[in-house]
Amino acid sequence: MIITKTVYARAGLIGNPSDGYFGKTIAFSVKNFQAEVTLFPSPELRIEPNQRDHLTFRNMSDLVEDIRFSGYYGGVRLIKAAIKKFHEHLVTHEIPHDAEMNFTVRYRSTIPLRVGLAGSSAIIAATMRALMEFYGVEIPMPFLPTLILRVETEELGIAAGLQDRVVQVYGGCVYMDFDRDHLEEFQYGRYEPIDPALLPPLYIAYRQKLSEGTEVVHNDLRQRWERGDPEVRHGMARFGEITDEFYRALKERDLDRMGELINENFDLRASLCRISQANWDLINAARNVEAPAKFCGSGGAIVGVYRNKRMLRDLGRAMKEIDAELVLPEI
Q: Which residues are known catalytic residues?
């Protein structure tokens, strides 16, 4: 028995980062990039490292460059944490399973590292799905993103929200309402799939050299939220309003209004968080050709709408000038 599970990257179209703060978002899966986990029976439980987990370097400068680009962490820690959380779920809920069954797990990923396209959660989600099939365990779809999130927040200490895990479990495009009362009662939000045919022409652009962990941004935001910072509290409420306004514009096919809201989403974020000059360069490269732009996640990648082929050509030239990749997402 060989089990292979694939989970795609995601882009936060509107509303992020309010998903971690009882807000609302719309996000979509990006089939251009994927994480794949393969699991098969073996005498011992074994996690095979990927090339992203290599521990051999040409010299110290090579090691430092690897850390600058990839951070200190590869995928092995994500898989270990996912296995631990899965096991705890089985034990806590007294779910029957064969504890003597062992496996080998390996992974690969084409999702650009640490640019806000949810590569880490994709590896965890794929691992969870593989474990569920291997042990014949069902976890209700609405709750599965919550379990995946707990791998990162409780096991790895990463400040994050549910958005990425929801869209990676449901696929396609999803409207998410993280109403606090509903979330605290049921441990998941209200999730509504959106027909991708409703979506306007979308682009994604990213700069791999902007690689930065999501915790760099979110840890400070979390602290300010918990202190009751009125600017952060008001901002998170407005992100939710922006999401609902965008959803109405989406249904009405109002591209102008969608573009305005995408820009407002980023401007609001910029008022709450420090934005590096390199990330501003990425945003401005799009806006200088009149293409609305906001972060897909925490920075390093942007998402927006474009009007026509001329604007798309202009976007391509603008991104090439700053050494950024332009992608038309497959949803």
A: 164
